[in-house]
Amino acid sequence: MSKIRIKNFGPIKEGFKESLPNGTINEWMDIKKVTMFIGNQGSGKSTVAKLISTFSWMEKALLNGTLDSITENSTQQFIEERCGYLRLEKYFKPNSEIFYRGDYFDIEFEKGFLNCEEKKSNDLYNIPKIMYVPAERSFLSSVEDTDSISGLPRSLDTFRFENNRSLKALGDVLKLPFGSYQLRYDHSKRTSYIQGDDYELELSAASSGLHSAVPLYIVSRDLANVIATRKTDNSISALNYKQQIKKNAELQELRVGADDVLSNEHLDEFKKQEQIIESKYRNSSFLNIVEEPEQNLYPSSQRSILNSLIEYNNITNGNKLVMTTHSPYLINYLTLAVKAYQISKELKYELLKEKLAAIVPPKSMVNPDDLAIYELDEKEGKIIKLADYYGIPSDENYLNQVLANSNLLYDALLEIEEDNES
C-alpha cells in the first residue's frame, strides 16, 4: 500500500500525526482503495490529492522510462514542471518535507532536494492509469467545441482530452446514474445532449449539476472499463519512443543466453520474468483522483455519483479512488456503503439480500479495511484520521459539526425570541 507524509507545504504545517497503541507516532497517511479528504476551504485537501497524483505519476514514470532517474539536477524540474502541472510550484517552503512510499519507489523531497530509492519486484507490476479530475471540469460542459479552446490549465486540458475521447467512445445513448437522464453524443456535430422523459437539450444548456457530473461520470466509467477489459486504447496503452526503447532493452537483456535454456523449469522462469517486464509498461489499474464529486448536486444525486465511482473503483482489484469533499452527505453515504458491506457478509436469505441491494448496490459497497478518511485543519495545518467504530466512519467530524452548529444557532435565535417576549 502506498503512503505519503507531508510537512510545511502550502497550508499544511505539522501534517498528519497518529498516536499508536504501542506509544509510537505514525506520520504516514495510507492511500487506501477509497481515501477521502475533508476540511474547510484552504485547509489543503486538494494539495494532498495533487501530491498523491504527482508522486504516483513520478513512480510510474521512473518505471516506464518517461523519467530516466532522479538526481540533484531533477529538483528544479520537479518543482517547476511536475508540481507546476497541478499549480503547486508556489507551495514550497525552505523547510518543506514530502515523503512518498510507493510500491516500487520511495521518493522524498527534503532540505530542498529530491531523492528516490527503487524497490525490486519479483511479481507482476500494478501500474495505474492516473486521472486527476479537477473541480473546474464543469467548464467543459458549459461551452461547445472544447477542442478549439486554448490556454486551459494543464490538468483541465488533460481531463478535456479524456472527456472528449470518452464521448467519442459512446454508443447510441448512455443512461446516467442520477434522475431519469440519458446522454447522447452527436459525433458529426461533436455536441452532447441530455435527454429527459419528454425532451432533449444540449448539455451546455443543462443544469450546473449535470455540467459537473456528466464529465466525471463518463471519464470514470470509460477508463475503469478499458482497464478492466484490457482493451487496447491509444490514450492509455501506447508507449512513446523513449518507453519503447527502455522496454526493448530490458527484454533484450533478459533474452541474452535464452537460447541456452535447458529445462522447462528454466523456461518457465524466463517466461515469468518476461511477463514481469511487460507488466511494467501496461496499465493494469485505475487511480481516480476526484475533486468535489458532489459539486452542484442535490444530496440524492451525490449519493448516485458516489455509488457509481465506488462501483467503477471495485471493478479491478488494484483500482483506487481518492476524493476531496465539502459534503457531509458523502461521509454519510460512505457509512452506508461500509455498513452494507458488513451486513452482506452475514445475510443468508435472498429476500434480505434484495432489500439490502435496494439501499446500497452490491457493486458499490466498501470494505472498511479499504477506507481511510482524513480531516484537515486550515488554522493549525494539521491532519487527523477520522476515527471509526467497528469500521463505521465516526460522525464526529468537521462537516457534521457544521450541520450541528446550525441547530445550536437556531436554538440561540429561539432564546432571543423568548427573552424578547418575557
Describe this structure in words.
This protein is of the alpha/beta class and 422 residues long. Helix content is 41%, strand content 21%. It has a seven-stranded mixed β-sheet, sandwiched between helices. A five-stranded antiparallel β-sheet has the order 5-1-7-8-9, with helices on one face. Helix 4 packs across helix 5 and helix 9 runs antiparallel to helix 10. The longest helix is centred in the C-terminal third of the chain and has 24 residues. The protein starts with a strand and ends with a helix. About 1% of the residues have low confidence.
Counted by DSSP, the helix tally is: 11
Care to count the β-strands? Answer: 20
Helical residues, percent: 40-55%
Show unreliable segments: 233-237
- Largest beta-sheet characterization: 7 strands, mixed
Based on CA atoms alone, the radius of gyration comes out at 24 Å
Taken from the alpha-carbon principal axes, the silhouette is globular
User: How are the strands ordered across the major sheet?
Assistant: 2-18-17-6-16-15-10
Mean pLDDT: 89
Category by helix and strand content? alpha/beta
Portion in beta strands: 15-25%
Cα distance, first to last residue?
63 Å
